[in-house]
Amino acid sequence: MDAFLLQVLSGLATGGIYASLALAVVMIYKATHVVNFAQGEMAMFSTYLAWQLIQWGMPYWGAFFLTLAISFVGGVAIERIVIRPFESHDATLSVVTVFIGLFLILNSLAGWTWEYTLKSFPSPFPAEAYLGGYLSGHQAGLFAVVLVTLAIVYAFFRFTPLGLAMRAAAENPVSSRLVGIRVGWMLALGWGLAAALGAVAGIMVAPLVFLEPNMMGFVLIYAFAGALLGGIDNPWGAVIGGFAMGVLENIMGVYVVGTELKLTVALVIIIGVLVVKPAGMFGRTVVTRV
Amino acid sequence: MRTKQKWLGGFAAAIALALAVGPAQAQKKYGPGASDTEIKIGNVNPYSGPASAYGSIGKGIASYWKLVNDLGGVNGRKVNFITLDDGYSPPRTVEQVRRLVEQEQVLLVFQSLGTPGNTAIHKYMNARKVPQLFVATGATKWNDPKGHPWTMGWQPNYQAEAKAYAAYILKNLPKAKIGVLYQNDDYGKDYLKGFRDGLGSKADSMIVKEVSYEVTDPTVDSQIVTLKGSGADAFFNITTPKFAAQAIRKAHEIGWKPEHFLNNVSSSIDNVLKPAGFEASKGIISSLYLKDASDPQWHNDKDYKAWLEWMKKYNPGVSTTDAFYVYAYAVSSTLHQVLLQCGDDLTRENVMRQAANLKNIQVPMLLPGVHLHTSPKDFAPIEAIQLGRFDGKRYVEFGDVLGQ
Amino acid sequence: MKPDWRIAALAAGLIVVCALPFLVSDYRTFQFTLVMVYAIALLGLNILTGFNGQFTLGHGAFYAIGSYTAAILMAHYNVPYWATLPAAAAVCLAAGFLFGLPALRLEGLFLALATLSLAVAMPSILKWKGIEQWTGGVQGIVLIKPEAPFGLPLNQDEWLYYFTLAVAILMFVLAWNLLRGRVGRAIVAIRDQPTAARAMGINSAIYKSVTFGVSAMYAGVAGALGAIAVQFVAPDSFQVGLSFVFLIGAVIGGIYSISGAVFGAAFVLFVPHISEGISRAAPQAIFGAFLIVFMFVMPVGIAGFLRLAWDWARRRIQRSSHVTGEAS
């Protein structure tokens, strides 16, 4: 096959990793209008929980869903206990500071509990590879999971009353309260769902990159770039953005700027999108009334 | 009591030769950090930050000295091992090392980890005349007795190892088309330089593709695809464990089967080959100087058994195949040897003198045939390279031990 | 009455600070020098984020640029160490201003994201082959510490301490002057009421970009001093963690004040040493916990707390003197 196509395929595979985390980022953004810098660490921590459950003998899918449940509860708890006191502040400083604090705590807690050595994480998908070996069984499975999750998230926001209530709560808390929406709980729910999505991302990604506390640190930047590129308030935009990011980063790395500057590519994309078209390719442009 | 003697026996072979070397010093001479009862040793390791996986080495070393202290110490003195975190950030390394030297007044700094950190303190240690002993990096620049008489490495340096692979290729695969994957930092570039130097004038014609990666990349899959596409049939894999496992696995998946040379840093069967897959790892050539704890051939070996007992008793919860703990044990045994040779003259000058006076010493967990050897002109204790080919279960040694 | 108190306290503090190198070991002097370096950097961060409301997670990147500017000039062009400071200041002022321009369009969390990406990408930029011949690539650049001039009887650590002290005092006075005048009020107005500020004729765009530049300039000067103190620069010295550390220092010290920069710098330098005794992983977790707790309890930081405590004490004294006055 053409070398270029192979690189594109390879980029799509990496893009799957970014897309899965980007979904969690978008979920939080849609629900709370906040960009969560600790999303990667939350996902990593959830993955360690799943790993521990599997180590204790639980079968894979049992551990998978139990971890999702625990992560959901954890996300809700974090929102209620740590984030909620600052909701009224609406100040970037307090919010981001708390996120960074969470980031540091989760990262060191994971390292202290499970050490920093690499751990293998099992894959539920068959090992056979497709396309002459260029797409492994797990990568194909990852694509499938991302698409399924995307469909669920999209349907949730678009077609369910709860999803509508969440979107309303994020966009116009005052009016939402007037129509009876429990805004506080909507935000907590958003965090819980995002934490669960993050767990999915982590569990899907770990078999590819190996589990360690710093697993998601840099993936998060690429995921942000992808989410911004596709539209940070648009689930399927974020997924497309994530895949696009993988391909873009790969092609740029191989043919244009060299493999050394991939992070710089992400940086340029982030700044470029934010300055030129903050809504991304598929997002909605928001107009703020002064 | 009896078990203690068993462990002591594990050291006996190693120190038997040593006792013949240093003449008994009647006088006691002490430098900073040494006294009748104690020897203070300083160390910096990355316990936090991006390189925190290597923090296991610091923990292993600390636990080794605990064992030694429980057995009575070194020549009757307890070892006070002070290890500080530098987060793999050179400014912090400088701060912590200055603390060790100026505030804690250690006798020597042992096994400081990482090339950037060691570069940052290189001048300082030599200006202050404090031993920067057995640094935990394979960079070639630590073997410079003339310019930096207070600094010494330990593990076989990267360039020497790469040259061994180059020599093998020139001899056995003269028509090879070589692809190289290297980590874009000091470690990767050092290996690459040695490799190119080893190939000499043929470097440019034989190496068809050189591709790098950053530790911030999620995977190296794309690089492997590039290398296969270049038509290379020999592969020099200069990656750290996580990326090595990824590379081996991806190469196998896409059906690329080159003659695969894996750098020693990632040679661990348990940490790298197992996650990558034993089938995928068959045929990989690497160089070895330490016994691999997951290799069944050592399971009845005396030194291995002593090491295993130490692991079980002093490092509960750590995997008994952890390569970092083998490394920690061996390098600490080396310092142990040096301190024993110092006898009652525990000055910094004598420490360096004895470190430069290791004559064919064997310490536990080194492969048979690999010895420590230093002299005032040769500050590279281990130069031996033993090549081995992985057969799906263990590395099968072949060829002679090179570079002694 | 009150001004005398303050000046007396300041003078006393200054005397202690000047005498310090002779009272403590060289190692401590080196540490205090680093505290001052970080204080200068944090001051820049306070100006930008505390006073002007532009949130940056990329402060470490400009610190890195300052460090490398100094290192390259010293190592490749034999520029004397003291001359690298104005150079680093100029380079970072320009770089910060240029970065501030597109940043004008970014608000709050998105600005944070953009600056975070800058900090994350910086080490790889510093390692880039294209500029390797100046930056030394992954090997970095080794520097020589300056000797005391004019044959002064000071060793290297002591001389650098005084040099840094002089620069720090200069930078602090500069900031103090800037912030209490018209410019300072404009900067704060842009933070609190951006629309009203615009309506009153303040050219928000220029002010914001220039503030970004000034903040980067402070980071750059600090970076240059830091490079000289540590005698080494390498890409690994400027990982994203550095920007986090700056944020932590600013928040805990007091991001809305000038003195907060000093408290914060002392905190981030000395607390890891204390917490190391507890556990290896502790320093990072403790930073995280402190961040959250301080945001809950004391968002104005140590400096703000001290000011509140001082005001409270003053009022108590006034009230009691009032009472006694009436009684008599």
Binned strand content of chain A: under 5%
**Structural class assignment of chain B:** alpha/beta
Count every helix of chain B, treating DSSP H or I runs of 4 or more residues as helices.
14
The chain-level structural class of chain A is: mainly alpha
- For the terminal residues of chain A, how far apart are their CA atoms? 55 Å
Largest sheet of chain A: none
C-alpha termini separation of chain B: 39 Å
Number of helices of chain A: 11
Rg of chain A (CA only): 19 Å
Poorly predicted runs of 5 or more residues of chain B? 1-7, 16-25
Mean pLDDT of chain B: 89
Order of helices and strands of chain B: HEEHEHEHEHEHHEHEHEHHEHHEHEE
Q: What is the typical, i.e. mean, pLDDT of chain A?
A: 88
Which segments of chain A are poorly predicted (pLDDT under 50) over 5 or more consecutive residues? none
DSSP helix fraction of chain A? over 70%
What's the shape of chain B? globular
Number of strands of chain A: 0
What brief labels describe this structure?
heterotrimer; B: 404 residues; alpha/beta; seven-stranded mixed sheet; four-stranded parallel sheet; 15% strand; globular; C: 328 residues; mainly alpha; 1% strand
